[in-house]
Amino acid sequence: MDAAGGRGARARRGTRSTAPRSRGRQKGVARSPSRGRVAGEGSSAIATLRTPRTDGAPARGGRSARRAPAAREPPAGGAAGGAEAPPAPRSRAPAARVPAAPGSDAAVPDGAVAAAGRRPPPAADALRLREVLSRLSLLREDVSEASTLVNTVVRHLGQAIRDRESCFSSMEQQSAGSYYERVKISEPNEFDIMLVIPIKQNANDSTRLQLDESDDTGAFYYVSFKRGPIERGWLKFLEEDGKLSASKMIQALRDIIKQEVRNIRGMEVTVARKKAGSPAITLQIKKPPFEISVDIILTLKVQQSWPPSTQAGLKIEQWLGTKKRRDFRLTSIYLVAKQNKREKVLRGNTWRLSFSHIEKDMIKNHGNSKTCCESNGPKCCRKGCLKLLKFLLEQLKRKYPKELEKFCSYHVKTAFLHSCVMWPNDTDWYLGNLDHSFQQCLGFFVDCLQKSQLTHFFIPQYNLLSQEDKARHHFLSRKISYELNNGFPVFHENY
């Protein structure tokens, strides 16, 4: 999706190769400590000297007496010109400091003081972000038509799947993903649908499935039936060792869908080729002017206790409350058919824990108070920040597809959820503080990239950033830092 209206704006702003001269003596700016933190994490706001911006860590500073125009992005490894970082508006929580990016030639030293000045910060940055956010909003009419097409197709396929395969006879349809979390950006052209198969309990109400970890992440499991009668239809999906094969079940589901899409009238529906490592069966729906992609995800639903690897996760007590956490942990386990690439021999019989249904609930009902963003309640900028995070990554991936191919929206979504825990109060997310809150989220994400450490929100021992990809992580941190320091020029570029 293309961002609009950027080239003329950049031309009018112009560029400058060095930072403007300071008008007076520089003074330190006091910062208050953060009121909420993730366990084991600290947050600090360290003031820094004003220096020319580079494709590296964003400099922190106080309120400047004068703002320099945005600078052009230099070639890889070069220094950039001198646009100042957007000053943070008042907030009850300080913005997270963005550390110096590895390889930056002009990184700002820790412990320096900020430029003096007490005038209110210019509103240009906040207005620009609001303009971008308004462009990302979906038209209600388009959303309604697109969702009607998707629901028609999925209902048709669901009935056929239940009729043709006994193991799928009790299958339920559940929505997932950004569209249903109401944080979809630009176009209603991608949908995620979970086809959920409830695993019935034994006659004595005991758990029917046994879960065995397939590695040390705590996210991937082998699934097998415990002793007791098994419906005959499941036998063809078992391996010789009794493990339930995810790949066999996906293939059976794919075969049914490929046959049944031919019977759908009024639109063109095709099944896309398999994506390496993806747990989804992707449908392409074409009915001008719409071209829609639908990911169908095979999911098991098991009513039993969450695995031990999740015990220290979901630390939402200060954000959504202890009762909410307890209620979430009493819900069923969801397992999606997903190949574990860490296996020495890839057999396609692993399942990964999924929490998309809980993530959707948290994002839709996100307030620390129970009135946040309700019809008569105060509005916050949480969803706006998540949309901007997703759009920033999407635009950077368009610009650098090879370097950033391993990053996905789930990375920024996870960073956003951690940010909601670090700043748990609704007052930390005032709607008028969009630019400040967005910078806080970015600061946390950049810090994770530089450490190559982004813990799964529900499984703390699972690091979503592989240590083998540190160079990619540092590359993205530099690109984000450049955007943050120069007014996000990528938001106004077309590809």
Shape: globular
Write down the oligomeric state: single chain
- Report the C-alpha radius of gyration, rounded: 25 Å
The number of distinct β-strands equals 9
Helix content: 25-40%
Compressed to H and E, one letter per element, the order equals HHHEEEEHEEEHEEHHHHH
Beta-strand proportion: 5-15%
**Low-confidence sequence ranges:** 1-123
**Structural class of the secondary structure composition?**
alpha+beta
Average pLDDT number: 75
How far from one another are the termini?
Answer: 8 Å
State the helix count: 10
Question: What does the main sheet amount to?
Answer: 9 strands, mixed
What does it look like?
It is a single chain. This protein is α+β, with helices and mostly antiparallel strands and 495 residues long. Helices cover 29% and strands 12% of the residues. The protein is built from ten helices and nine strands. Strands 1, 2, 3, 4, 5, 6, 7, 8 and 9 form a nine-stranded mixed sheet that branches. Strand 3 and strand 4 form a beta hairpin. Helix 2 packs across helix 7 and helix 7 packs across helix 9. The longest helix has 25 residues. The chain is globular, with a radius of gyration of 25 Å. The N terminus is likely disordered.
